[in-house]
Amino acid sequence: MTTRSSLHFQLPAGGVPEWIHLMPAGTFSGVDGRGPFTLEAADEVIATSMAAGKLTVDENHSTDKAAPEGRPAPARGWIVEMQPRADGIWGRVEWTASGRALIEDKAYRGISPVLVAEKEGGRVVKLLRAALTNDPNLTLTTLHSRTPDMDFLSKLRTALGLTADAAEDAVLTAVTSHAAIAAAQGKLAEAVGLAADAASADLLTQVTAHAADAGKLTAISAHFKAAGLDLAKLTPTELQTHLQARGDADATQLRQTVISLQSQLTTLQTEGAKEKAVAFIDAAITAGKPLLPMRDHYIGRHQKDPAGVEKEVDALPSIHGGGVKRPPAEGALSANATTAEVVAAADLHQAEQARNGNRISSTDAILHVTGRR
Predict the structure, then answer these.
(1) CA dihedral in degrees (366, 370, 372, 373; nearest 10)?
(2) What is the pTM of this model?
(3) What is the pLDDT of residues 185-231, one digit of tens each?
(4) Rounded to whole angstroms, how far apart are CA atoms 369 and 373?
(5) What's the pLDDT band for 273 if we cut at 50, 70, 90?
(6) Angle, CA of 34, 35 and 41, to the nearest 5°
(7) Phi, psi of 202 (to 5 degrees)
(8) Is beta strand 55-59 parallel, antiparallel or unpaired with respect to 124-133?
């Protein structure tokens, strides 16, 4: 035999909640003495409750009190999904416009579920509906407490190693920083021959291997330096001759090892030099240096002579700094314009043409701004 009861719970705060706490876990009773009730198998209760479709959320149990008397009992929301959680059953509500307005106005602070339970033992078997109320009778999450978004923010603070009271801006900064680290990790993975999304453990193994190889080559380089030889300039034949003269039994194998290490080191050095060159030149372009048409040229030069190129680029005027003027309407610069000003003006003209869908060469751009075309 079963009995029907209505209980009262608080609703989550912070705007209009999508999920509301409908029933506590374990054994519970109402403040008015009803119960005790026991929620034993939440999944079974949910399946039974949702078998006929979505459930009504009304005001002050109007479905049970007003409707039988012929008075209006409009729905203020519909429970369309339920979930079993550690603290009981939660329901996802699709609020009506009127229901949303009531909650935004804080007209109600609680929810009162109507449930069916066995008369003997109080085991809950079904949830029929719920009602907005200001007479809470059970201790559940309130409409004016934490929202799921706040819980998520709290979890983020913990995951990022922040304090529990860290501001949202601090959380966002930490997330952005972690994203940058992840991006850098992807580039490092590609540099050592792995996929950008390689697992951290695989990346660590590969980087460690590269570091070990570099260490071996450093030791070998020191040996040849002590013998008055430059490993970087040593040919394979000269290398083998030197090793044989030392009486190394396995000179050929060692020669191959050194050649392999030389190749790996050269690759790493080249990649490192290019990465630094790209970073410097792109930063200079962003700062307004007139380098865009010759970006690849400057990157290549920087790889060979970083100090010289950086000195040259630093001396160039920035098109953002006001020192370089746009060419007159007729496209001509003054007769005493410097080379840097001509290049900067040509860059501007080339960029403007590109925005208009016209691709022109650097030469054509220079001819245009100097009035020769």
Answers:
(1) 60
(2) 0.38
(3) 666 666 666 777 777 667 667 666 665 655 555 666 666 666 666 65
(4) 8
(5) confident
(6) 140
(7) -65, -40
(8) parallel
